[in-house]
Amino acid sequence: MNATGSRPDQPNGTVLTADELSLLRSVQDRLVPGDGQMPPAHATGAAIAVDTYLAERTELRAPILGVLRAISIATAVHDPAHAGFAHLDGDVQDEILHKVEASEPEWFDCLLVQTYTGYYTDP
Fold first, then answer.
1. 25-50: b (≥16 Cβ within 10 Å) or e
2. How far apart are CA 24 and CA 11, in angstroms?
């Protein structure tokens, strides 16, 4: 990170990279998939909300970035074509999330809380 708190690979000053935001959106849609009456998380801007929280609350960066890394690593085991988490079957995505939740419960809980906060409180 540079002096402003942004990462050098983020010219717009946000905390998450484009790849991290994409992964976060896909993960959030498994956590809050929508049900016909309520939209899925990606449709509400929950990922951008979490990115904003990371810019404002630096103590959230380690757990959120850590859990996204853990999900990426777990995805690689199930994704020999390297298509990414978003392209995996929903059951496989859920399996990955359950494994990461079991191995990194505090990080996963932080992701869950910030996702719910972004989903339910940001307009």
1. bbbbbbbbeeeeeeebbbebbbbbbb
2. 19
Q: Output 105 or 5, whichever has higher pLDDT.
A: 105
Crossing angle of helices 105-121 and 18-31, rounded to 10°: 80
CA angle 75, 78, 80 (to 5 degrees): 100
DSSP label at 32? S
What are the CA-CA distances from residue 1 to residues 25, 52, 97, 116, 122 (Å)? 23, 16, 27, 27, 26
Predicted TM-score (pTM) of the model is 0.86
Where residue 13 falls among pLDDT bands split at 50, 70, 90?
A: very low
First to last CA, the chain: 29
Tokens of 44: 């509400």
pLDDT in tens, 33-72: 999 899 999 999 999 999 999 999 999 999 999 999 999 9
Residue type, position 115, single letter: T
Apex 74 CA angle, 51 and 28, nearest 5: 35
